[in-house]
């Protein structure tokens, strides 16, 4: 195992994590029940690193590709790439804006030097 990212779903009591060695995103309830694999395989994710949860979506970065992808936790077979950056992306954070932005391509990037 090579756990890189952790995220919490406080509404449904789930802990999510990504494992870069196994190319997998999993979840488990806080009480240790209902462990399951949500996304698996290099065709859907490759070296996941950063992980965040918002509005029933898991957002994750791919360390080697500089990609940000998302997956709905209720329909995890459909992984959507929403951003590609020409360098490595480590951690990421997602948040709501007011007013809401509808363009999924709107990202603010902060590199390792600010």
From TrEMBL:
<dbReference type="GO" id="GO:0005886">
    <property type="term" value="C:plasma membrane"/>
</dbReference>
<dbReference type="GO" id="GO:0017147">
    <property type="term" value="F:Wnt-protein binding"/>
</dbReference>
<dbReference type="InterPro" id="IPR050778">
    <property type="entry name" value="Cueball_EGF_LRP_Nidogen"/>
</dbReference>
<dbReference type="GO" id="GO:0060070">
    <property type="term" value="P:canonical Wnt signaling pathway"/>
</dbReference>
<dbReference type="GO" id="GO:0042813">
    <property type="term" value="F:Wnt receptor activity"/>
</dbReference>
<feature type="repeat" description="LDL-receptor class B">
    <location>
        <begin position="13"/>
        <end position="57"/>
    </location>
</feature>
<protein>
    <submittedName>
        <fullName>Uncharacterized protein</fullName>
    </submittedName>
</protein>
<dbReference type="InterPro" id="IPR000033">
    <property type="entry name" value="LDLR_classB_rpt"/>
</dbReference>
<dbReference type="InterPro" id="IPR011042">
    <property type="entry name" value="6-blade_b-propeller_TolB-like"/>
</dbReference>
């Amino acid at each position: 195992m090579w756990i890189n990212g952790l995220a919490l779903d406080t509404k449904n009591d789930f802990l999510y994590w990504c494992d870069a060695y196994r190319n997998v995103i999993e979840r488990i309830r806080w009480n240790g029940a209902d462990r399951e694999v949500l996304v698996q395989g290099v065709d859907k994710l490759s070296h996941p690193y950063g992980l965040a949860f918002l509005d029933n979506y898991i957002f994750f970065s791919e360390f080697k590709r500089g990609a940000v992808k998302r997956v709905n936790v209720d329909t995890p077979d459909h992984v959507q790439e929403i951003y590609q950056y020409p360098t490595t992306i480590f951690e990421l954070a997602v948040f709501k804006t007011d007013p809401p932005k509808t363009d999924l391509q709107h990202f603010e990037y902060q590199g390792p030097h600010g």
